[in-house]
Amino acid sequence: MSATAPLRPLLSARSLRLAFGGVKAADGIDLDVMPGEFLAIIGPNGAGKTTFINMTTGYLRPQGGSIDYEGRSLLGLRPRAIVRRGIGRSFQLPQLFTEHTVLENAALAIAARAGLWSPLTPLLRPGWRAEAEALLDRFGLGAVAGARADALNEGARKLADIAMAVALNPRLLLMDEPTSGVAASEKMGVVETLVRVLRQAGVTAVFVEHDMDVVARFADRVAVWSQGRIVALGPPQQVLADPVVRREVIGIEAHA
Ligand SMILES: Nc1ncnc2c1ncn2[C@@H]1O[C@H](COP(=O)(O)OP(=O)(O)OP(=O)(O)O)[C@@H](O)[C@H]1O
């Protein structure tokens, strides 16, 4: 490839459609995610943001359109197959095993990646333990590695959940509201940590976010969702200044 070849999208969605009864949750979504970028998705409740993540990660099947990742279709693949292709996700509510320690949770994700874990396998085998400790250190969670997951505050819980997704070595990570429920005083620290880790690991990120300060500071581009469609897309300084976006999306969000 020549040095001047245009950058190809990592993920490319075209004309995605999905309706639930009369509700058009995806009404012709076209979106390219470029390698290395941090793309924020904003939009009012019910706009179809989570539906897009669910279609991309195999939890929902679109009724029309296409989704390609690294030039190959994702359609018809189950969630586990999509993870193996290099796409991770985190949910709005952290999916941790609450009665286990943070270290055990991380070790479990590492073991699951290798396809080696069974209920009879000791979780803290030396290799997994060392990798889990290193992973938690990267997320600034070393000090709480021995704590039960249900003893963490929400910011640490979100980071631990994302650490488990990162343990699967994704090249693209989709995060559904990584700061929801996190105290205002902790929010920027949580996002700073996760952006630093993801950038160091070369992970491209798409994240649903309701906090416009977070979007303005950390997103390379913002896609605005409304009623199953993308109604604006561009750099945050441009999109967040758009009067229609401010009135129709940010205005609504202020009261959500
Ligand atoms: N499995 C489902 N069955 C029926 N309707 C659904 C399903 N999933 C989503 N919907 C509907 O599709 C629309 C889009 O939902 P979605 O969760 O994608 O919105 P969202 O933008 O993520 O909202 P929020 O910000 O509240 O999470 C909503 O009207 C929702 O009720």
Give a structural overview.
43% of the residues are buried. The chain has two domains: 173 residues, P-loop containing nucleotide triphosphate hydrolases (Rossmann fold); 71 residues, no CATH class. It is of the alpha/beta class and 256 residues long. The radius of gyration is 18 Å and the shape is globular. The longest helix is centred in the last third of the chain and has 17 residues. It contains nine helices and ten strands. The strands form two sheets. Strands 6-7-8-3-9-10 form a six-stranded mixed sheet, with helices on both faces. Strands 2-1-4-5 form a four-stranded antiparallel sheet, covered by helices on one side. A hairpin with a 2-residue loop joins strand 1 and strand 2. Helix 3 crosses helix 4. One of its GO terms (molecular function) is ATP hydrolysis activity. InterPro entries: AAA+_ATPase, ABC_AA/LPS_Transport, ABC_transporter-like_ATP-bd, P-loop_NTPase. This is ABC transporter ATP-binding protein. Keywords: ATP-binding, Nucleotide-binding, Transport.
